[in-house]
Design a protein that fits this description.
The complex is a heterotrimer of chains A (263), B (377) and C (292). In chain A, a hairpin with a 2-residue loop joins strand 1 (7-20) and strand 2. In chain A, helix 3 (100-111) packs parallel to helix 5 and helix 4 crosses helix 5 (144-156). Chain A has helices at 51-58, 76-81, 100-111, 115-128, 144-156, 174-191, 202-208, 242-257, and strands at 7-20, 23-36, 40-44, 66-71, 85-88, 162-166, 194-199, 211-216, 221-227. Helix content of chain A is 36%, strand content 25%. Chain A contains 8 helices and 9 strands. Chain A is an alpha/beta fold. The longest helix of chain B is centred in the middle third of the chain and has 36 residues, at 171-206. The model of chain B is unreliable at 28-37 (pLDDT under 50). Chain B has helices spanning 8-29, 39-57, 62-84, 93-115, 121-149, 160-169, 171-206, 208-221, 230-237, 241-264, 269-277, 282-317, 326-335, 339-367, 372-376. Chain C is built from 12 helices and no strands. In chain C, 42% of the residues are buried. Chain C folds into 2 domains: 2-62; 87-286, MetI-like fold (Orthogonal Bundle). Classes of the chains: A alpha/beta (263), B mainly alpha (377), C mainly alpha (292). Chains in contact: A-C, B-C. Chains B and C meet through helix 4, helix 5, helix 8, helix 9 and helix 12 of B and helix 1, helix 5, helix 6, helix 7 and helix 10 of C.
Chain lengths: 263, 377, 292
């Protein structure tokens, strides 16, 4: 499935070492990964396994110490300069002094789109995340889940093909999270974007992904890559099917194999 | 000609230095021209600027480059100042060009040092001290060079060297002023004012009605020009230090009150509920939880008050004192146009203020070692 | 209703208590002098008459609140505003140099803060000095600035405004450095993913984020500015202004005048801080701040 489509992200022998006060820390070690167009790839692992660091390397927020990585065939820096991706953080990170619509407009202002074009894009992305009608609200007037949807709308505003999401629903309660997972899948189905999704929730990873990258810490590395056999149409109750549970068990085994819980 | 370490500062210095050498040579070549400064020291200064610029540009080691620039800039400044001696007020363009070049070198040096990210702890502390020290030194150097080079009238702005000499010559007077103002008025007023503020804050904490009434008043009073009570205090308590201490007490009382009340409210709900589950009474809860949690706020007030106390005591002395005290000295010496003595007194006041603040800050670090702001840095 | 119970009532009650205490102390402090007067005039007034007299001395040790109020009222509303005894006139003299100095000081503070945030060399070399200079009793230089500038022929508004500038730029510079650095790492990363330029990050992120810090430090600065202007009036030989009224009152033992000048100064200070506070709240509201 991924073999014949062009690679959106391709990394080989990726290494990243942080210099800290307690000596060097190897956050990424020998990571090889290829992500094809239209895939939904989850990165899962315990904290310190480098899943967020890997996402940040793709986004050019960190520079690898060695190894090569390309995004859309360019270096991450070139890709960032071309605005090749949208990034969603752990928190909504909306500017509190801007309305929702002005927040979504922020990236558009920065690339210098005309007012008319901005308005058209805002309307389209707000519809995509089901936030129409909340354009004039300020962030504090919205619930946590709605704020995170607004931040997804902001990330979609560039109309980039790649969406990088760093535990976007980690701070939300499970009920809201289920709802947003469903909406995200729906969005992915309609837009055919490539999504890289960092999470520490096994059900979330299995429910959303076409492929699950299992990582383990000290040093941060990829221990297993699991292809999902679930159909592309996934209602929430698919999570009770044996097929789903089997994949979840494989992920759990992969995590255990990385002996990540020994301390 | 290629420079491995080119920077805009050195690009300016080089033409400066060339122009400088030309001006220098032509001025000394004309017998009727007044000597800009001593030929020998001027020549040495120019040579130092040139040599250190070139040496710095051909060094691949950044630290060595900074050392060259440091030596060149300060050596040139030294010879420049030595050369102007006896020729005050006669400085020509060459003098200022040389000063500017030396300053650019020093800036380049600071830029290099600022760019360094020291990993070893002693190195980073040293950098944290050296960089502002160079900046401060250059304020003094430029001050000295300009006041003397342009012959600025002494009563307008005396050069730092004259102020330093004045401090050295008037140590007994300065000492007695410090004793009068700081060891009597400031310290006594500071201790009494802070204690009073603290006690009233505890009282206000016990009586919610008092707290709700006092807090808005205290917040408002801190914006008022309380210093204006000084003439009243002088009338009530006489010219000597008690009137100044009274002003200090009033000025330090409210910041301590407001901060302590805020601090006592700072402990978290969960912690307070925990103490409740222990059936802990008011005083154990206060001593074991709420006062420790309030310490950052209390020290904030102590730090604000250290400056306020000095200001209060010095300004109160403008309204009448016996013939001793820092505020007295400042106002009378200003009247006599002994500006160097005023500067000497201000320098001492600045030093006293920094030491006072520093001592409070050190005690704070020891007491609130657990607080993130202390742990982090 | 709720704010009445929780705030206004306790505040009024305590202020009323202060007034009562004030009267008590006025009687106690003024009694010795009154007794002296009475014994010299061979009078033996009753208690009520004695108390009444202690509260009506022309130069009392502690003037009674109503004496201050009457003096304040007369000098504020009954005098022509051009008279140099008018408090309105004197307050205006002080206020004008306060405002000029405050405006300059705020502008200077902002410029220095922008420099410190954007130039690493300034941050490492200048910032420690700005912090250290907060521990220095800067007000001590006020007489020198006035006298030295007078010696070169600069008098009037400018020297006082200079002191106010000096006092107000420190809090603004420190507050703005904090404010311009207040954006979270996540917001800065976000701008980085947009490949935003330095000026875009500055205008769209750092500046809006620093606005609350600006107003907080401006409140401190405007109060400091007023103190600077008042102290700056002391060495000029008491020409005009609230500081001059204080000094003249001290010189002629006109205690009631001192107190009403103090009241005038306090009202000006409270008004200035209030105006800055309201401006801050309006801006905050316009920027979508959550109503408190």
């Amino acid at each position: 499935m991924t073999g014949n489509s062009p690679a959106v992200v391709s990394a080989s022998k990726l290494d990243l070492t942080f210099q800290t006060n307690d000596g060097p820390v190897r956050a990424l070690s020998n990571v090889d990964l290829t992500i094809g167009k239209g895939e939904f790839v989850s990165f899962i692992g315990p904290s310190g396994c480098g899943k967020t660091t890997l996402l940040r390397v793709i986004a050019d927020l960190e520079k690898p110490t060695s190894g090569t990585i390309s995004v859309n065939g360019m270096t991450p820096e070139q890709a960032r300069e071309k605005r090749a991706y949208g990034y969603v953080f752990q928190a909504a990170a909306l500017f509190p002094w801007r309305t929702i619509e002005r927040n979504v407009a922020l990236p558009l202002e920065i690339i210098g789109l005309s007012q008319a074009e901005q308005a058209e894009r805002i309307k389209r992305t707000m519809e995509l995340v089901n936030l129409s009608g909340f354009e004039k609200k300020y962030p504090w007037q919205l619930s946590g889940g709605m704020q995170q949807r607004a931040s997804i709308a902001r990330a979609l505003a560039f109309d980039a093909d790649l969406l990088l999401m760093d535990e976007p629903f980690g701070a939300l309660d499970e009920i809201v999270r289920d709802h947003l997972n469903e909406q995200l899948l729906d969005l992915w189905g309609r837009t055919n974007k490539t999504i890289c999704f960092v999470t520490h929730s096994i059900p979330e990873a299995v429910y959303l992904s076409t492929r699950i990258v299992v990582m383990s810490p000290r040093p941060g590395r990829v221990t297993d890559i699991i292809e999902s056999t679930l159909p592309s149409k996934r209602p929430l109750d698919i999570r009770e099917t044996p097929e789903f549970l089997a994949i979840a068990a494989r992920v759990r085994d992969g995590l255990r194999a990385g002996h990540s819980y020994d301390d | 000609m290629r420079f491995p370490n080119h920077s805009w500062q050195t690009w300016i210095v080089l033409p400066f230095a060339g122009l400088l050498a030309f001006l220098f040579a032509s001025m000394n070549g004309v017998p009727s021209a007044p000597p800009p400064y001593g030929t020998l020291s001027g020549g040495v200064a120019i040579a130092l600027v040139l040599i250190s610029t070139l040496a710095a540009n051909y060094t691949s080691n950044r630290l060595l480059e900074a050392v060259f620039l440091f030596a060149g800039a300060h050596g040139a400044a030294f010879f420049l100042l030595a050369g102007i001696k006896g020729h005050e007020g006669t400085a020509g363009p060459a003098y200022y060009l040389l000063l500017a070049s030396a300053w650019l070198l020093a800036w380049r040096c600071v830029t290099i040092l600022s760019g360094r990210r020291a990993t070893a702890r002693p190195m980073s502390i040293a950098l944290r001290l050296i960089i502002p020290a160079i900046f401060g030194a250059w304020i003094l150097i430029i001050w000295e060079a300009v006041t003397r080079g342009a012959g600025i009238p002494f009563i307008l702005l005396p050069p730092p060297s004259a102020i330093g000499a004045r401090i050295a010559n008037s140590l007994p007077i300065l000492g007695s002023d410090v004793r009068q103002t700081i060891f009597k008025a400031v310290l006594i007023g500071y201790v009494v004012g802070n204690l009073a503020g603290f006690v009233v804050a505890i009282l206000a904490d016990r009586v919610p009605f008092l707290r709700r009434g006092l807090l808005p008043i205290g917040n408002m009073v801190s914006a008022l020009p309380i210093i204006g009570v000084a003439p009243i205090m002088v009338m009530w308590f006489g010219f000597d230090w008690p009137s100044k201490a009274a002003v200090v007490i009033i000025m330090t009382f409210f910041p301590m009150l407001v901060n302590t009340v805020a601090g006592l409210a700072a402990s978290g709900h969960m912690e307070r509920d925990l103490m409740r589950t222990y059936a802990s009474g008011y005083w154990p809860t206060l001593l074991k939880l709420r006062l420790p949690a309030a310490m950052p706020f209390i020290f904030n007030a102590l730090k604000i008050n250290s400056t306020l106390a000095l200001i209060g005591a010095i300004v109160a002395e403008f309204f009448g004192t016996p013939v001793v005290g820092m505020g007295f000295r400042i106002s009378t010496e200003v009247g006599r146009m002994n500006i160097d003595m005023v500067w000497a007194e201000i320098a001492v006041a600045a030093l006293a203020g920094s030491v006072f603040y520093g001592v409070v800050a050190l005690i704070e670090r020891a007491v609130t070692f657990w607080h993130p702001s202390v742990r982090g840095g | 209703m709720d704010s009445f119970r929780s705030k206004i009532f306790p505040v009024t009650a305590i202020l009323a208590g202060v007034v009562v205490l004030w009267y008590v102390f006025a009687v106690i402090l003024n009694a010795p002098f009154q007794r002296d007067l009475d014994s010299r005039a061979n009078e033996t007034p009753g208690v009520v008459e004695f108390v009444g007299k202690t509260l009506a001395q022309p130069k009392p040790t502690l003037p009674a609140p109503h004496q201050v109020a009457v003096n304040f009222f007369e000098n504020t509303f009954l005098r022509s505003v051009t008279s140099n005894r008018s408090l309105v006139y004197n307050a205006w003299v002080t206020l004008s140099s306060t405002l000029l100095g405050f405006a300059f000081g705020t502008a200077l503070g902002i410029v220095i803060a922008v420099g410190i945030v954007h130039v690493a060399t300034l941050d490492r070399s200048l910032m420690p000095w700005i912090i250290a200079s907060q521990t220095i009793p800067i007000l001590a230089v006020a007489p020198m600035i006035i006298v030295v500038l007078a010696a070169v022929g600069i008098t009037g508004l400018i020297p006082k405004a200079l002191i106010s500038t000096y006092l107000s730029f420190f809090p603004v510079a420190v507050g703005m450095v904090k404010g311009l650095r207040s954006p979270e790492l996540m917001h800065l990363d976000l701008m980085h993913t947009y490949n935003a330029s330095r000026s875009q990050t500055f205008w769209k992120l750092r500046v809006p984020a620093s606005v609350p810090f600006l107003f907080t430090s401006m409140k401190v600065a405007v109060a400091a500015s007023l103190v600077g202007a008042i102290v700056g009036e002391l060495p000029t030989g008491a020409v005009a202004g609230i500081g001059a009224k204080l000094l003249a009152g001290a010189y002629y033992s006109q205690t009631v005048d001192i107190w009403s000048a103090l009241v005038a100064g306090s009202i000006v200070a409270a008004l200035l801080v209030m105006v800055v506070g309201i401006a801050g709240r309006l801006v905050d509201r316009a920027m979508g701040g959550r109503p408190a």
